[in-house]
Each structure stands twice: as structure tokens, then as C-alpha cells.
Amino acid sequence: MSDMSDMSMEETTTQAPLKTSKTGITDMTHTTATSNYPATGDLAPHPTGADNEVLLTGVLIYGEGEPTDVLIRDGVIAEIGADLSSKLSDGGETIDLNGQVLLPGLVDMHVHLREPGREDTETIATGSAAAAQGGFTAVFTMANTAPVMDNPSIAETVWFKGQHTNLCDVHPVGSISKGLRGEELTEFGMMADSDAKVRMFSDDGKCVADPRLMRRAIEYSKGMDVLLAQHCEEPRLTETAVAHEGDTAARLGLSGWPRVAEESIVARDAIMARDYGGRLHICHASTEGTVSLLKWAKEQNIPLSAEVTPHHLLLTDERLETYDGVNRVNPPLREQRDVDALRQALIDGIIDCVATDHAPHGSEEKCCEFDKARPGMLGLETSLALIAQIFVLNGDQDWRFVARVMSERPAEIVKLPGHGRPIAVGEPANLCAVDTNAQWIARGEEMASKSRNTPYEGMDMPVKVTTTLLRGKVTCRDGQAQTSTTAGA
Fold it and tell me: What structural domains does the chain harbor?
């Protein structure tokens, strides 16, 4: 641990002014993006001259105002205005979007791309394609790979493979503990200084249950200004548990998972973040009680952020009536009162952002007895449509809200430069376009992901991402990721 022991615990970083949400809660995790991330786009061929110009015509920026054009040159938004076709050089590309909503490219702080180790369920290439089709330009892939992402060489391999694929920026998340065993800290400093420049650490899939180890992790992370993402689950309360502890589990004979298993860790780690000052992020908040704890923490100006998944915003434990393993997830689907509390917390800024927890599994891991099924669901390709369905199409929120919780806020939390930026001249062209008139049916076999475990099989999706651009490069066209086999189509 020499790279950590030599570091001054008083080391500080420059932060932007604190930001207050409309609820009056001070946002202690809002900071300007840093240059601590590796350079992007260096491993893929770059178009030059007119070949690097794209004109998006007829877009509604954030779904507002009149249709306008956006001219992109050399990966940057060069001009916004009416009828810019005359500004496009010969050889440049025009994409007619005809009234579609233009948003910043989405950022997902929490995915599982399974590589290395489980390439039978997902790879960096297939996961990146799923991300592009979902409107994402950056994702953070968790450390529970095989072998575990607890050393620089594995993190660098993931980073470089993502850059070669060049469909979205794939940032590796390092594990907090070696081997996810919860016994000894990973070498944070070595991973942060590696070519992958790891800026987030998590044992997701497992909780860092030992409070002494978590305290040390928070203290070390503060000196390096890296983010710790905690999977909040007291393991002694969830042994054999497979479903939310409530009436549904009791009726179905399923072992119950109490809310307190999550809430006790949220409370413990919030207090440690208060006392020791590191930046802490709560993964997949799922209970009404967690919302109350997050509200308290933010009122105390504790440097704490939190995410919620689309499935916890939409589905309840009533889905378990069929015993279909596709509905098993960790944390489990809760009750309607939890769903309602999570939705309001996201609106109020108590919960900061949406993260998919995209978790591919093979059919043999899902088509089995419910208590034997592996927990996890696909999420990258359906998340934006679901958030639009829950919040926008009923008139409750607008598309700027979607941009905030799916792009701007996650990019702020991880201090990711170039993503989650305003749609304005001079900004990087990390963008996605959404057709609000293109309904589609979710079918696992038609998704880019290598696995098929979507809980939304056969469900009508109300909007569709048609176009995604990563630094001006079209990564999704007409709803299809532009892989090496489709790029010329």
C-alpha cells in the first residue's frame, strides 16, 4: 500500500461553487470536470476535412422551440441556426432528424460489460453497441469481472478495448477491495495513475460490509479525489434472500430481503462520509427509507450522491407472481410506495441521477428456479424510453429533466470532461436524437446486447433513440449501432 501511505491526507482539489437544488438541498458533489481522465479517441481512425462534418437538420434542442440545424465540425458543435445546409462542405453528411429531440449524449455510471471473464454474456464491443443504441456516449463498467478489476493491467485492457471499439467511452471502475473479498484495499493510487486513469471504485455486486475497511477507503479516496460507489447491502440480513420482504414474498414462499439491509449501510456510510470527507455514491437506491436518509445527508451537506435504476422506478415485486427469473435483481423489486418515493426523490434532486445497472446474463442463468436465477437485468437500450414514459410523456417533467438526470448530473458526479455538456456552439458533439413518434416493442433477440434478459420483453416503448454521436462520429444511425459491419451501410 506504499502508493497510498505516502500521500498527504490534506491534499485538496479545486471545486466549483456549491449548487442548490430547487428543494433547497445543497449539492456537495457538484464539481467541475477534471483532466484526470485519459485522452479519448486516439485509437480509432479520424476522418479529416469535409468527412468530419455532420449537419443535423430539423432538431428540437431539449425538445424546445422551433426546429433548427446543428452543424458539427471536427467533433465540436460549430454552428446552430436555421437552414445551415449552405455551410456544409462538399463531402459532409446531412442527417435529417425532422423534429426529433436533441439531447446531450447520455452517461451511465453503472453497467456490467462482463469482459474479461464472461464474454459469453456480454463483451465490451456488444455492450458498447447497446450503449450507442440507447443514446449513451460514456459508460462506467463495474469491477466484478473475472479476474476482478483490481489492478492496472485489467483496467487498461478494458479502457483500450473500449477505445478501439469507438462506439462510446468505456471507463473501467476499480474494485475497492482486492478480489472483492472485503479484506484488503485495492491499490487506488496505482489504478488512478495507470493509462486507464481509474476515477471510480466499487465492489458492486457485493457490499464493503466491514466498517473499518470502508473508513480507510473513504480516507484514502479523499486524498486522490476519486469516487467510491457503495452497493448498500448488509450481508448478514440478506443470507438466502431473493425477493423484497413483504406480502408478495410471503405469499410466494420466497426468502425476504428487508429494506433495513440497504438502509443501515446508507446511514453508516453517510456518517463516515460526513466525518472523513470522501466523495461517496450510493448505487441503485431502492427504498423509501433510503430516500429519507439521502435527504437528511444532503441537508447536512454531506458529500453524497445517489442513483436509481429504471426498473426500480417502474416495476414492483408484483412481477414475481410468475416466478420468472428475469425479474430477480439485486436489490430486489420493492413495493409501490418505494417506487413513488424514488420517483419524487429524483424529481427533487434527492436522488441525483439514473443509472441502468445493465447486467447481462445467459439464458441458463435466468430460465431456472427463481431462487437459483442470477440477479440482474438488461438496461442500456430501454432506459431512455422508460424514463420518458415515467416522467415526460405525462407532462410531469420536460426533456431538460431527462438531460439532467441521464447526462449532466452523472457527468458532474464522476467529473467527466466532454460529456453532459450544454448543447451550444463550441461544445463537444456528444449527442443523441430521440424520435418521440417512433414506438417500438422491446424484444431481447433484437437488441445489440449479447444477452436477452430484459424484463420488458414485449412491452411497447414510446420513444426511440435514432442517432447517437460521439465527438461528432455517428455511432448509431437509424436506431442501429455503427459497428465495423454496419458503418458503411
Answer: 2-38+106-425 (3.20.20.140)
